[in-house]
Task: inverse folding
């Protein structure tokens, strides 16, 4: 139909593709933009990691209906790796979407640089209302909600050629956050440690989970390594290094967290056994009960610098009983698993109300305050929490949680349903 709604989706990951599938089924014209050359660009970065949630929590009912026509579905009780998530779920989902007459294109190797709204400035048409123009100046657009979105895109690899694409009624940013350039800083108070910026620019330190037992094995085998962080990425890295030390002599780990005591809360009857195992191993390591692991709790990195022999000298500050203790040591590798922050530059010219603590959209962030420590206890906040002051612009998936790491794919599937129902009410056709 000529008057079909048009939707631009940023990111061809798990949530971007779920949204694209639901949209084309409802008659919405869709274009998907993915910076990587394949689906699930961020997932490729942790393809060797097993999810601690089973397939049953990572597949939507809508996707299963179309994928079962292509062949057997994955075992819902199995725990997939990132590689299996891409090959068995995301890639076939993308093929189904591309076959729809409502799909205007899945653009790989294409980065969305920024999103605007016609000729409107960020400061104009507050809340979508009439534009108040100075006397004698032409009125370019009347209201934000009536003005189509305009995307500046560029070739992510090669020439970097730029172009504008216009005429979108809605835009959904599903671009995620798992990337080296989006990692938080490892220094005190979340600021860069001295020397950290240069070492990150030189790719000398890891800011995503290294494939310790695979392609990065030689960098860690028989070496001393520092792991910073107290999330599941850090726990995964510590566990893998401990496993490596069983067959590679002299492999040693220093495990550093900003809080003292047990770094992880263990849920007694956790329905996700892999999560419980990771938490328990890390807590035992913090008590000195795991061979080849030294624990530094209540600590912060002051400086990281590279010595002449290529090793890294790390200066650490620890606080205890009001006193501060400084120390330094050398390691071969540093892995900073300290979380990620969303790239907000994409929508800096739109009217988006961001949380001052998490950088996520404010309405959704408000619903997450004081939530349960168990990410499984989450429920979808509904479409109203996903709306921004910018009419028709949505931030979905992991990026919608800002710096919070408790997002689950099942929540993203709920987000997709609620947004689609708000755009085209009624069941999918």
Result:
């Amino acid at each position: 139909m000529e008057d079909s709604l048009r939707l631009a989706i940023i990111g061809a990951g798990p949530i971007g593709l779920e949204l694209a599938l639901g949209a084309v089924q409802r008659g919405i014209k869709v274009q998907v933009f993915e910076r990587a050359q394949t689906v699930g660009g961020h997932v490729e970065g942790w393809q060797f990691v097993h999810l601690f949630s089973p397939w049953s929590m990572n597949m939507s009912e809508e996707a299963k209906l179309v994928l079962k026509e292509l062949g057997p579905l994955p075992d819902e009780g199995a725990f997939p790796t990132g590689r299996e998530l891409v090959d068995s779920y995301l890639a076939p989902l993308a093929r189904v979407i591309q076959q729809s007459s409502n799909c205007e294109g899945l653009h790989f190797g294409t980065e969305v640089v920024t999103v605007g709204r016609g000729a409107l400035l960020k400061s104009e048409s507050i809340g979508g209302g009439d534009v108040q123009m100075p006397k004698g100046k032409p009125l370019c657009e009347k209201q934000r909600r009536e003005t189509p979105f305009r995307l500046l895109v560029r070739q992510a690899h090669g020439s970097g050629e730029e172009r504008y694409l216009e005429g979108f009624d809605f835009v959904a940013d599903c671009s995620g956050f798992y990337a080296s350039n989006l990692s938080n800083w490892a220094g005190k108070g979340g600021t860069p440690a001295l020397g950290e910026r240069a070492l990150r620019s030189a790719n000398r330190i890891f800011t995503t989970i290294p494939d310790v037992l695979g392609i990065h094995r030689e960098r860690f085998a028989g070496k001393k390594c520092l792991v910073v962080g107290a999330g599941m990425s850090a726990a995964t890295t510590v566990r893998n290094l401990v496993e490596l030390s069983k067959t590679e002599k002299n492999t040693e780990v220093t495990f550093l967290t900003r809080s003292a005591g047990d770094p992880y809360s263990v849920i007694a009857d956790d329905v996700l056994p892999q999560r419980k195992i990771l938490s328990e191993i890390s807590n035992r390591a913090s008590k000195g009960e795991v061979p080849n692991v030294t624990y530094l709790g209540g600590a912060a990195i002051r400086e990281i610098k590279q010595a002449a022999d290529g090793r890294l000298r790390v200066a650490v500050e620890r606080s205890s009983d009001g006193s501060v203790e400084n120390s330094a040591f050398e390691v071969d590798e540093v892995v900073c698993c300290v979380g990620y922050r969303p790239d907000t530059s994409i929508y800096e010219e739109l009217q988006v109300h961001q949380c001052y603590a998490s950088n996520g959209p404010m309405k959704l962030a408000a619903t997450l305050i004081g939530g349960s420590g168990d990410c499984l206890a989450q429920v979808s906040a509904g479409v109203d929490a996903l709306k921004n002051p910018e009419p028709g612009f949505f931030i979905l998936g992991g990026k919608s949680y800002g710096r919070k790491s408790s997002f689950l794919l099942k929540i993203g599937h709920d987000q997709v349903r609620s947004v689609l129902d708000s755009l085209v009410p009624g069941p999918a056709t």
User: Anything to note?
Assistant: The chain is about 25% helix and 20% strand. The chain has a mean pLDDT of 91. The longest helix spans residues 82-98.
